[in-house]
TrEMBL record:
NCBIfam families referenced in this protein's UniProt entry, alphabetically: Ni_dep_LarA (NF033504)
Domain Lactate racemase C-terminal: 277-418
LarA-like N-terminal domain span: 11-212
Gene3D superfamilies: 3.40.50.11440, 3.90.226.30
Name by which UniProt lists this protein: Nickel-dependent lactate racemase
Organism the protein comes from: Saccharopolyspora ipomoeae
A Pfam family recorded for this sequence: Lar_N
Length: 426
């Protein structure tokens, strides 16, 4: 009997271990640098010694209103530590009452009180002004004009009306915007629905440049940068995380050079070469909070699609504690056509963008080239079938059966951290 290799997959909060045939399995993981020896020092250092422009304290005056944009609960940003670093660094210039914390939800639902407390801690929730952005509430939006390639922009009025605007986030590869963090904390994070729909329209998403680790020349990220730069960010603050979601490095300063510096570090950590395409690719969506639903898990599937053979099999391990989810249009749009190919035709033929169609478009593109099974604790096979997916109860058995069907030369690739690793064929 051939030797097995044990692979620990990022799955929910607890992880998942699978046993796969050692001589036929390639494991591709990002580099795992240690956490910064003193996270508070690293965060404060980014505020005091920015990549570009003056330190944070030189950009804020007493009495000014300060708006801070934060990732929502689907992202593992160390929000509490970053907000506390801002408060400490601005001590003597600004008080907590001068701040408004804006949860940059984009089109996602607002975060609950329990989620906010998990994200920020009880003390900050009880003492600071926190607002969930709502892209569908016209009373929350201000028109800002047209930016980028004809994007009519509206943004959160609390952000627009602030004297000082600070983005905070973390940088990781993004499946159609190149990289997360930086300007995405303005748009789509704090944008109105019409703005988000334009940024995610079928033509932009269909561009071959709208992909992992590409920013310049990517029609999505080009417009995201144009909006943030054109509407104004006074200071940008991002971190890079390791697999334990610990801060490795922090970056601050003027938005665009700060983000460019951060993503070069991420590129070195996450982009990994492989010698071939694979018959089977096992992936994840990086565990909780990133694998809360099928919608988010599309990112892990898309990472796998970069190295799966045409007609191959992708298995995505994603807990999906929040289901598809049931809020939003993702599930409805995904089930609206009988095949992935029909979905792609329908989306490309629309004159208006439907909410969540971009995630469906990307998943349909993956499904047009490979079968996708999902190992999940919370979504039934019947429900997955309506979305052109199917349930995989035992990953090791499913891999063994696929390899047996494909013959002795068949090979499997594993991305234990999912979209934290972007493999590419050399």
């Amino acid at each position: 009997m051939s030797e097995k290799v044990s692979v620990d997959l990022a799955y929910g909060r607890t992880g998942l271990t699978v046993e796969l045939p050692g001589e036929r399995t390639t494991v591709v993981a990002p580099a795992h640098p240690p956490a910064a020896p003193d996270v508070e020092v690293a965060l404060r250092g980014a505020l005091r010694e920015p990549v570009a422009g003056p330190p944070l304290r030189e950009r804020v005056r007493p009495g000014q209103r300060i708006a801070v944009s934060l990732c929502d609960a689907t992202r593992p940003q160390p929000r509490e530590a970053m907000v506390r670093a801002l408060l400490t660094e601005l001590e003597g210039i600004a008080t907590p009452e001068d701040f408004t914390l804006l949860v940059a939800t984009g089109t996602h639902r607002g975060n609950t009180d329990a989620e906010l407390r998990a994200m920020l801690g009880d003390e900050l929730v009880d003492t600071m002004r926190i607002i969930n952005h709502d892209c569908r509430d016209p009373e929350m939006l201000r028109p800002m004009g047209t930016f980028g390639d004809g994007v009519a922009v509206s943004l959160n009025r609390h952000w627009v009306d602030a004297d000082v605007r600070i983005t905070t986030g973390f940088v990781e590869p993004h499946f159609f915007a190149g990289f997360s963090g930086g300007p995405k904390l303005v748009a789509p994070g704090l944008a109105g629905l019409d703005t988000v729909l334009t940024l995610h329209d079928a033509a932009r998403i269909a561009s071959p440049r709208a992909t992992w680790a590409v920013c310049e020349g990517n029609p999505v990220h080009d417009d995201v940068r144009a909006i943030a730069d054109g509407t104004g960010v006074d200071f940008a603050f991002d971190v890079v995380l390791n697999r334990e979601q610990q801060v490795v490095e922090a970056f601050g300063g003027d938005l665009l050079p700060m983000h460019a510096a951060a993503r070069e570090v991420v590129r070195e950590l996450s982009m990994q070469p492989v010698p071939q395409r694979y018959d089977v690719v096992v992936t994840t969506n990086s565990g909780f909070p990133l694998d809360q639903n099928v919608y988010q898990a599309v990112k892990g599937m898309t990472a796998a699609a970069t190295v799966v053979k045409p007609g191959g099999l992708i298995i995505c391990a994603a807990e999906c504690s929040d289901g598809f989810p049931d809020h939003g249009s993702f599930r409805e749009v995904l089930a609206s056509e009988p095949t992935p190919e029909a979905l792609l035709r329908a989306i490309s033929g629309r004159t208006e963008t439907v909410p969540d169609q971009w995630q469906v478009q990307i998943l349909a593109r993956v499904l047009a080239t490979a079968r996708v099974g999902v190992h999940t604790t919370h979504v039934t096979d019947a429900d997955l079938r309506t979305a052109h997916l199917y349930r995989v109860d035992d990953i090791a058995t499913a891999v063994a059966e696929e390899l047996a069907a494909r013959g002795p030369q068949a090979r499997v690739c594993v991305l234990p951290e999912g979209p934290q690793t972007i493999p590419y064929v050399t």
